DNA helicase RecQ
Amino acid sequence: MSLTEIDLHKELKKYFGFSQFKGLQEDVIASIVNRNDTFVIMPTGGGKSLCYQLPALIEEGTAIVVSPLIALMKNQVDAIRGISSEYGVAHVLNSSLNKTEVKQVKEDIVNGVTKLLYVAPESLTKEDYVDFLKQQKISFLAIDEAHCISEWGHDFRPEYRNLKSIIQRIGDNIPIIALTATATPKVQEDILKNLGVQKAKTFKASFNRPNLYYEVRPKTKNVDADIIRFVKQNNGKSGIIYCLSRKKVEELAQTLQVNGINAIPYHAGLDAKTRSKHQDMFLMEDVDVVVATIAFGMGIDKPDVRFVIHHDIPKSIESYYQETGRAGRDGGEGHCLAFYAYKDIEKLEKFMSGKPVAEQEVGHALLQEVVAYAETSISRRKFILHYFGEEFSLETGDGASMDDNVRNPKKQHEAKEELEL
Ligand code: ADP
Ligand code: MG
């Protein structure tokens, strides 16, 4: 089907009930429908899923969607089934299925019912699946969270590395759509090179979050008291506090509780039931504050998180951007406060010391950027956006005044020196 025959707005309304595309969605979808290799870089919450879901629903055949997490796939499949009456329209193919279920999935694909097939990269490597998919009509292949391909991303997964050769075995003329919220120039280059789609049409949205206020404070031994004060000043608002270790999560959650703050802990050491209970309590606003490790957040879509505090500095600017990005999704206020002590950087360096040398080098380079961010006296927004390869103008950019350095500038000459990013 060619674009001229399709009214994308009508299809959007029909399948999703939305009357407007968000940001670059329409252009991206047009590119996919025209069978281009397509590269989409949009911040979290930008609406990347719809970019491949809508064309998949419109086009003939099955779109294969590679996604790193089973939980994420399940959410997406449920959401798609919510908008379509047909059961087989979206399926997950992974190791959790039994033989009968696999057979059903395959039948739905053969019969042309399945429009979206979510797979984990490791399932895609299975001979049996490759042989099967090779014989099917595949509309395109979407690779979600494509930064997992790059060791310069914040979530490198070696299984993502072999995708290109598998795709070629399934068919050598299948358009490839890569999507990510990770935009550092290095990661972008890695993605395109690894997938062999250097000529892909690229769509990049701005990463600026004008409503987020960025602040860094020195971390002293009174950091817990500082946090308590901050939370009390923001009484009743939703917030996330990130800590590096499970132990610290438990301790801090308790300290907050003792101080009359409605807080709960969240980390991967809690059993699944407790984790999901605590997550729901936060979403339903039975508690104000979640104290968490980075295990908390993927796929969390609470629009009115008003602050994200980092008790410990994260291991990359990328992670910091992702984690703070959970604040102010609704466009309202979002205060991003990081506590920083160089000692913590040394601690993170030490954690890495057991890892392979190449990994340590990457880790070290990423950490140096974090140090530069924490210690800079220029606009933090400008710093973050520069990291993502984006120019930001302090004169005309949105949210230019929304950080501590801009509101309370340090001495001119210091600032000037540090401008050389
Ligand atoms: P991303 O993968 O980029 O982080 P998602 O695909 O999860 O973002 O979408 C984020 C939210 O935006 C979802 O709740 C989705 O329903 C919503 N959304 C996507 N496209 C539109 C649109 N055109 N109009 C309104 N809401 C949209
Ligand atoms: Mg997504």
About this structure: Residues 27 and 359 are 37 Å apart (CA to CA).
